[in-house]
Amino acid sequence: MRTEPAVEVVGLVKRYGTKTAVDGLDLTVARGRVTAVLGPNGAGKTTTVETCEGYRRPDEGTVRVLGLDPVADAAALRPRVGVMLQSGGVYAGARAEEMLRHTATLHADPVDVGLLVDRLGLGGCGRTPYRRLSGGQQQRLALAMAVVGRPELVFLDEPTAGLDPQARRATWDLVRELRTDGVSVVLTTHFMDEAEQLADDVAIIDGGRVIAQGSPEELCRGGAENSLRFTGRPGLDIASLLKALPPDSTAAELTPGSYRVNGTVGPQLLATVASWCAQNGVMPDAIAVERHTLEDVFLELTGKELRV
Amino acid sequence: MTAVEAGTATSTGTFTPRPGAAPLSRMIRAQAALETRMLLRNGEQLLLTVVIPTLLLVLFSTVDILDTGTGKAVDFLAPGVLALAVLSTAFTGQAIATGFERRYGVLKRLGASPLPRWGLMTAKTCAVLVTEVLQVALLTAVALALGWSPHGNPVSVALLLLLGTAAFSGLGLLMAGTLRAEATLAAANLVFLLLLVGGGVIVPLGKFPAAAQTVLQYLPISALSDGLRDVLRHGAGLPLADLGILAVWGVLGLGAAAKFFRWE
């Protein structure tokens, strides 16, 4: 039954006291792909992931992981699912390699520990106890522990939070290799570039619901409008430009001599703008199509104001 | 379908899924070994489990500042210090270690591993017992060097130590699983100190007022030190009253811990 989804969440509701952390969330995670769960702090990412990991019982809705119930079938699921918590999870006095070796011992056919130690640069931890490792070393150890048992599915809760750029790249490479080797990956992150780089699918969560889902390309194409920018001499006749443009377009002079056209940005629009410039004797410098990044989409969907 | 293709195309990849739990016995053995290493590696714990009982034994056996009744002081002290060793490891040490493991997500993360929870608790118990065997060996050697002449049936002693371990483990885990880690740290040390003084370990219960004695004798530490003393000092057979008190504490403590323990 390899074709059923890795994770299927339907109508998940989870409340803590009077606060609703997850409010009717639907999410399907395909097998063998990397799915990024994005959302502002308090959006319900960790609660959702921890419900899939079997740590919390849904108040409403259903959660299936590899076709099983994460709470009722926990014993059957535990060897098949790798878990990286947001923080902690290791004895304060344990050494990195000791803890990784121990985690490997709990599995039937683990990945070679030495190889993982090299891959994630844990060799430098030596005999240092966990409590004195750097935040980045602790993160990398938690990642290694999540994958050492050769799981079918891994949940990574903010795997690169607090990592330096090199360690981040090493983590990204590892996630890509997991996908190549057929492992399904669910990761939560605050980093848009991480989701753009790694994810086949992105689910944006806000207020305990999925507010957008798709590939990074789909989301960038769909959510926010793209725009065309150019510079010319100040004070061009915007009304005349608008007459030349398709009806769904807008145009504005942002700062003197700097213009933006919004609309269905494509070759046709570019040609229209260029020919209007030619008719009006304007040389459009620095003409550029601005593609929206996932970050633009994210901010547009979730709002720019700081969450308290 | 992509998953199937990816799976077959790279069946030799480093991370190609091959999930499975290790055999249960191997998991529990590995976990017990890890738990024991964590216990023995912790300096503060060693102070509590080894240094303090040994110092008390040596100090009060050799310096006459404590009225331990007739006979050699070490014959009174050795059984009390053995009871203290059980208290320090099964209760104080286990409560503090488990409290911080809970606080730092160790128990949570282990809950996602193939090791079942009862396997984890079995491993913890094994680690406590291994530590106690080491403590008893050390303290016995020290006591014998100080001229201790133990009596009685070793089976009775082992039974007392086991029931004492069950009683203290239940109470320690109850504390670790319900209080904040810092509160557990403070409370476990305070209880250790109070029971050290008021539980017949080094101060004979007879020194307390009669009213206090009637309460203190039902403490698990009093039952354990009194029972051990009955056997090791006076050669009694099975101190049933003391064993009964320990069994009741064990059932209550472990039952409450099982019911109220929160894993995160």
UniProtKB/TrEMBL annotation, chain A:
<keyword id="KW-1003">Cell membrane</keyword>
<feature type="domain" description="ABC transporter">
    <location>
        <begin position="7"/>
        <end position="232"/>
    </location>
</feature>
<dbReference type="GO" id="GO:0005886">
    <property type="term" value="C:plasma membrane"/>
</dbReference>
<protein>
    <recommendedName>
        <fullName>ABC-type xenobiotic transporter</fullName>
        <ecNumber>7.6.2.2</ecNumber>
    </recommendedName>
</protein>
<dbReference type="InterPro" id="IPR027417">
    <property type="entry name" value="P-loop_NTPase"/>
</dbReference>
<dbReference type="GO" id="GO:0016887">
    <property type="term" value="F:ATP hydrolysis activity"/>
</dbReference>
<keyword id="KW-0547">Nucleotide-binding</keyword>
<dbReference type="InterPro" id="IPR003439">
    <property type="entry name" value="ABC_transporter-like_ATP-bd"/>
</dbReference>
<dbReference type="Pfam" id="PF00005">
    <property type="entry name" value="ABC_tran"/>
</dbReference>
<keyword id="KW-0813">Transport</keyword>
<dbReference type="InterPro" id="IPR003593">
    <property type="entry name" value="AAA+_ATPase"/>
</dbReference>
<keyword id="KW-0067">ATP-binding</keyword>
<dbReference type="GO" id="GO:0005524">
    <property type="term" value="F:ATP binding"/>
</dbReference>
<keyword id="KW-0046">Antibiotic resistance</keyword>
<comment type="similarity">
    <text>Belongs to the ABC transporter superfamily. Drug exporter-1 (DrugE1) (TC 3.A.1.105) family.</text>
</comment>
<dbReference type="InterPro" id="IPR050763">
    <property type="entry name" value="ABC_transporter_ATP-binding"/>
</dbReference>
<dbReference type="GO" id="GO:0008559">
    <property type="term" value="F:ABC-type xenobiotic transporter activity"/>
</dbReference>
<keyword id="KW-0472">Membrane</keyword>
<keyword id="KW-1278">Translocase</keyword>
<dbReference type="GO" id="GO:0046677">
    <property type="term" value="P:response to antibiotic"/>
</dbReference>
<dbReference type="InterPro" id="IPR017871">
    <property type="entry name" value="ABC_transporter-like_CS"/>
</dbReference>
TrEMBL record, chain B:
<keyword id="KW-1003">Cell membrane</keyword>
<keyword id="KW-1133">Transmembrane helix</keyword>
<feature type="transmembrane region" description="Helical">
    <location>
        <begin position="126"/>
        <end position="149"/>
    </location>
</feature>
<keyword id="KW-0472">Membrane</keyword>
<protein>
    <recommendedName>
        <fullName>Transport permease protein</fullName>
    </recommendedName>
</protein>
<keyword id="KW-0813">Transport</keyword>
<dbReference type="InterPro" id="IPR000412">
    <property type="entry name" value="ABC_2_transport"/>
</dbReference>
<feature type="transmembrane region" description="Helical">
    <location>
        <begin position="155"/>
        <end position="176"/>
    </location>
</feature>
<comment type="similarity">
    <text>Belongs to the ABC-2 integral membrane protein family.</text>
</comment>
<dbReference type="InterPro" id="IPR013525">
    <property type="entry name" value="ABC2_TM"/>
</dbReference>
<keyword id="KW-0812">Transmembrane</keyword>
<dbReference type="Pfam" id="PF01061">
    <property type="entry name" value="ABC2_membrane"/>
</dbReference>
<dbReference type="InterPro" id="IPR047817">
    <property type="entry name" value="ABC2_TM_bact-type"/>
</dbReference>
<feature type="transmembrane region" description="Helical">
    <location>
        <begin position="183"/>
        <end position="203"/>
    </location>
</feature>
<feature type="transmembrane region" description="Helical">
    <location>
        <begin position="243"/>
        <end position="261"/>
    </location>
</feature>
<dbReference type="GO" id="GO:0046677">
    <property type="term" value="P:response to antibiotic"/>
</dbReference>
<feature type="transmembrane region" description="Helical">
    <location>
        <begin position="78"/>
        <end position="100"/>
    </location>
</feature>
<dbReference type="InterPro" id="IPR051784">
    <property type="entry name" value="Nod_factor_ABC_transporter"/>
</dbReference>
<dbReference type="GO" id="GO:0140359">
    <property type="term" value="F:ABC-type transporter activity"/>
</dbReference>
<feature type="region of interest" description="Disordered">
    <location>
        <begin position="1"/>
        <end position="20"/>
    </location>
</feature>
<feature type="transmembrane region" description="Helical">
    <location>
        <begin position="46"/>
        <end position="66"/>
    </location>
</feature>
<feature type="domain" description="ABC transmembrane type-2">
    <location>
        <begin position="40"/>
        <end position="264"/>
    </location>
</feature>
